[in-house]
Design a protein that fits this description.
Elements lengths: L6 H4 L1 H9 L1 H11 L20 E5 L2 E4 L4 E4 L2 H4 L8 H11 L11 H12 L5 E5 L2 H16 L3 E5 L8 H4 L32 E4 L4 H11 L3 E6 L2 E2 L5 E2 L2 H14 L2 E5 L11 H5 L5 E5 L9 E5 L1 H4 L21 H13 L2 H25 L4 E3 L4 E5 L8 H4 L4 H13 L2 E2 L6 E2 L6 H21 L8
Parallel strand pairs: 3-15, 5-6, 5-7, 7-10, 10-11
Antiparallel strand pairs: 1-2, 2-3, 4-12, 8-9, 11-12, 13-14, 14-16
Length: 459
């Protein structure tokens, strides 16, 4: 994390956060003695310290000090029905009375696979694992096995999990005004061998012409192109329709496998964001909501590619392995969650997302502060920059001090967001909750303005 400016320590916003979260501050010191940094989840780190949670129900969470906050994180968008939904809890309890796992196959694995195949038009068959990272790992392995090629096309700012070949370059982008030329990723994290950058090429998100150029120059060498229909971790930036169509058209010409990363965007519609955009990718990676709050990942797609996972004596060439793959608790929770998540529920949730983004944008316009709101469906992000947000280079102009202070100001007013202010809604929320969040944001901007955070000297 970057160093905060001196005014961070003298801010009344920060002081109020410290005073009302003393037990979290104390717990961080305890945790740091046995866990590097105080947590195994780097995305939760923030200044002056993370909030440590103790309880959650519905749309609310409670921290160690007993502060209640409305949860707009929802475990990085995994808890689409909020916390402890009674139907999901009942299904999981019934399964736990039988077993949490066994060294065999749960009959419900096929039921969840049938559900996903029935919802997402491009999916013929599915395999399960335990995280979105693992799903991406398997999808890339399948693409390489299917094509006999190794090179992967990715997009700047795209986050596809912690797998070395897809995380390199996720946190380092060229300067905002640099040419949109294809380039290799940067090893922006220690411990990665040089080889992880050799089979990857990056271009800016939402640049259709850059995609065409890569395929003209390297199309016959590309095993896969992996893209999020909305750049999630990179700033909740919706893909432009022409950009996504170009990826599909160009990859089809060269026999390159198009992987649609829907770990976040599957919540956009019953058939995911690809249904909204009219896309038919070769493979789709999934996670988060399909596990009902338990660890999960899945990759699905065209039968001829997925059948590479068959036994070797049936023509298979890629093995799927994992002690907890398709474990009965996750599968049961996922089935209960997707049953509740029908078209009506998604439409209602997306309407709340529209209401939230409009409310946040109205606050920015009213207060005349340097900020932008991005997102789509039930997802949102707030950026402190005057620059229009189209790709990850634009997001890099975001003022990180303003990000952190805003998140603390919202926490002081009972709203929990990530340190970068991105988040997603849950079906247990209503218009009243949305309006409370907008009011808290407006009050936070007012306080930040009074403290001088938006003074021109800072920019």
């Amino acid at each position: 994390m970057p160093a905060m400016p001196p005014m961070f320590e003298t801010s009344a916003i920060v002081r109020r956060f410290r005073e009302s979260n003393r037990k979290s501050a104390e717990h961080e010191q305890r945790a740091r003695k046995v866990v590097p940094g105080g947590t195994s989840r780097a995305t939760m780190l923030q200044k002056p310290f993370p909030v440590y949670l103790a309880d959650a129900r519905g749309a609310s969470v409670w921290d160690l000090d007993g502060n209640e906050r409305l949860d707009f994180n929802n475990n990085m968008l995994a808890m689409i029905h909020g916390h402890g939904h009674p139907e999901v809890v009942a299904a999981v309890k019934a399964q736990l009375e039988r077993t949490s796992a066994f060294t065999s196959v749960s009959e419900r694995e096929a039921e969840l696979a049938e559900t996903l195949c029935g919802r997402v038009a491009s999916i013929d068959k599915v395999t399960f694992d335990n995280s979105g990272t693992e799903a991406v790992m398997m999808a890339i392995r399948l693409a390489r096995a299917y094509t006999g090629r190794t090179r992967i096309l990715r997009f700047e700012g795209g986050y596809h999990g912690f797998y070395d070949p897809v995380i390199t370059g996720s946190f380092s982008n060229p300067p905002v005004d640099a040419p949109h030329d294809p380039h290799p990723p940067v090893r922006d994290m220690a411990g990665m061998p040089p080889g992880v950058t050799e089979d990857a090429v990056l271009v800016p998100y939402n640049d259709a012409e850059a995609v065409r150029r890569v395929f003209r120059e390297q199309g016959e060498r590309l095993a896969a192109v992996i893209v999020e229909p909305m750049l999630g971790g990179g700033g909740m930036i919706p893909g432009l329709p022409d950009f996504l169509r170009t990826i599909r058209e160009e990859s089809a010409k060269t026999g390159t496998v198009m992987i649609c990363d829907e770990v976040i965007t599957l919540r956009f519609a019953t058939g995911g964001a690809q249904e909204v955009y009219g896309l038919a990718p070769d493979l789709t990676t999934m996670g988060k909501i399909i596990g009902g709050g338990y660890p999960v990942g899945a990759v699905g797609g065209r039968a001829e590619i997925m059948d590479l996972c068959r036994p070797a004596d049936e023509g298979g060439a890629v093995m799927t392995m994992g002690t907890f793959n398709s474990n009965p608790v996750t599968v049961t929770a996922g089935l209960a969650t997707l049953k509740l998540l029908d078209k009506a529920a998604i439409d209602r949730l997306n309407g709340l997302g529209d209401r939230l983004r409009k409310g946040l944008s109205d606050c920015i316009e009213k207060r005349q502060v340097p900020a932008r709101v991005t997102g789509a469906a039930s997802c949102f992000d707030i950026h402190f920059t005057r620059r229009e947000i189209n790709n990850a280079r634009d997001v890099a102009t975001d003022d990180e001090a303003l990000q952190q202070v805003c998140s603390l100001g919202l926490a002081n007013r009972g709203i929990l967001v990530s340190k970068s202010r991105k988040g997603g809604l849950s079906t247990v929320m209503d218009e009243g909750i949305i309006d409370r969040a907008v009011e808290a944001f407006d009050d936070t901007l007012t306080e930040m303005t009074a403290e001088g955070w938006f003074d021109s000297a800072r920019h």
